[in-house]
Specification:
Blueprint: E1 7-11, E2 14-18, E3 24-29, H1 39-43, E4 59-63, H2 69-77, E5 82-86, H3 90-99, E6 109-112, H4 116-119, E7 128-133, H5 148-156, E8 158-169, H6 175-185, E9 190-192, E10 200-206, E11 212-214, H7 215-229, H8 234-243, E12 250-252
Parallel strand pairs: 4-5, 4-7, 5-6, 7-8
Antiparallel strand pairs: 1-2, 2-3, 8-10, 9-10, 11-12
Length: about 250
């Protein structure tokens, strides 16, 4: 189990979690605990624009609990989605229960205190529609969660409608190398969203059924998602348009 400081602070109605460094590991607006306060946590939900089926995602695997922001969002707005959250540090789970309104475990929600790099190798294959990969310690992403073998193991447990969203730090020295490892594991079926103001860049990777859409369709889906859940992915799509990352505004993954 990792040994690091866990700090909790509050400011202007927002409760923050960090691991003894300047980096924020998670945040919760106390009046709206199900909303996604941090920009990068919102953009990790961009898979919702790529697989617009009404029952997607049916299952989600989360690596790294943080302040449980994405878990609360999915639990509220996608109640039929079965969520499995992996967190290596039991103290983080306890703090989320005490201070970050972690929902109780149920048939739809499981919280597992274990190293994801070990657990995923015995997980059911071709099982998860959505994987949210956001495992960080105070000094960055652990090597065990950033290896070719780990990314391949993630791919193996993804369903035919699978999307993986991975939080990357674009200002870190190893950013480009990490992108290369993800691209290789997913045979280049990977889109890197342009970095947000905080420097977070989200890698979206797909397995199974091909994704074939365009920017205008994603903008329409983002508008509907905002109306239904309050989640606004339109700023991310605007950065994607301005960066000209999509040839002819078309996405094939």
């Amino acid at each position: 189990m990792p040994e690091h400081i866990i700090d909790i602070s509050e400011e202007s109605g927002v409760r923050y979690l960090n691991f003894g460094s300047d980096s924020i590991q998670g945040a919760m607006r106390i009046a709206r605990p199900w909303s996604l306060e941090l920009e990068y946590t919102r953009e990790m939900m961009a898979g919702l624009l790529l697989r617009p089926h009404p029952d997607w995602p049916r299952s989600c695997l989360m690596v790294g609990l943080g302040a449980a922001s994405q878990l609360r969002f999915l639990h509220r707005h996608f109640p039929d989605c079965r969520i499995t959250a992996l967190e290596i540090n039991p103290a983080v789970i306890s703090i989320c229960q005490q201070f970050f309104k972690l929902p109780p475990e149920s048939p739809q929600l499981g919280i597992i205190a274990e190293d994801a790099s070990t657990w995923i190798r015995r997980a059911p294959k071709a099982h998860y529609d959505l994987i949210l990969l956001d495992g960080f310690a105070a000094d960055g992403c652990p090597a065990a969660l950033d290896s070719p073998g780990f990314y391949l193991a993630c791919r193996a447990v993804m369903s035919e409608q699978g999307v993986l969203a991975c939080n990357l730090l674009s200002r870190s020295r190893g950013f480009q190398a990490r992108v290369r490892r993800i691209r290789q594991a997913f045979e280049r079926r990977c889109l890197i969203l342009p970095p947000s103001d905080s420097g977070n860049a989200i890698a979206l990777s797909a397995t199974g059924t091909a994704i074939d859409t365009d920017l205008a369709t994603m903008q329409q889906r983002a508008k509907l998602l905002h109306e239904q859940t309050g989640l606004d992915l339109r700023p991310a799509l605007n950065r994607l348009r301005l960066s000209r990352s999509l040839p002819a505004d078309h996405l094939t993954l």
